[in-house]
Amino acid sequence: MSVSVMAPGRGRGEMLSTALLRWSEPSVGGPVVETPYLLTTAVLDSPVPAGSSTSGVHTHDDALLVWPHVGSTTLHTRNTVRRLVPGQGVWMPPGTPHASHPDPGSVSCYTYVTRAAIPPHWTSPRSLRMGRALQEMLLHLDANAMPDDRRLRAQRLIIEMLEEDPHAAMEVPVPEDPRIRAMAEDIMRDPESDLSLEEWAARHALSVRTVTRAFGRDVGMPFTRWRSLVRMSAATTLLAQGRPVNLVAHRCGYSTTSAFSAAFRRVTGTSPTAYLREQSALAPAGH
């Protein structure tokens, strides 16, 4: 079964540009999981235009686990952006404002967990490891009918299997000022660009001083370091798609593979080829 996930109150199939998301006014949704079940998974496998989101900013009364089965999904929370690839998931407690958009050709999954089944102390967003067995169990429950007692046993086992990810998806912090956030999102869509801070600021009719202050206040790092993090986040997505390292280096703004590999290791603690091997082991069979 494939289900399109939408913000409460929005029409089916409506797509919003991520640059227009209004974080101060999330739509509020009610519970998704039906009694007596503990969780349910919605699978989005329809084509989504690049740069569009499956929903506006919204919240749920249930906890939510976002994870891609194929391809990659970008998850926006109030102050961060994460690019998720197979094997990675993000857990969000009830009431967490968020929006997401999958890359074209991706299969993105949204597992809702009822409040009664939330693990103790999981009161803040966290990255989870989505091993192949866990992914297949969730998809099996979504696609197949079975007696309630068997479904509940499987759901309890799945919740026990949830564990935090030591190789979590990179969190890219973003400024709160909507003008500067729009600039940051443009940069994230074009990691190959070598435009300077001055040139990016001019494109958005901003002063360099205003941008610099916002990054120091909201992001906690200078622009150059932040852009390196953006490029490494993009690199993990491209590597998970099976792109060769030299192409990924070019697409992420590096003139040589060696410079890219050194930067990747500084940020992730591993080499691009080792990261690619790890992701291949977590990807679903046949992809």
UniProtKB/TrEMBL annotation:
Gene3D superfamilies (UniProt xref): Homeodomain-like (1.10.10.60)
Name under which the protein is recorded: HTH-type transcriptional regulator RipA
Superkingdom to which the source organism belongs: Bacteria
One family name in Pfam for this protein: AraC_binding
Molecular-function GO terms, alphabetical: DNA-binding transcription factor activity; sequence-specific DNA binding
Keywords of the record: DNA-binding, Repressor, Transcription, Transcription regulation
SUPFAM superfamilies per record: Homeodomain-like, RmlC-like cupins
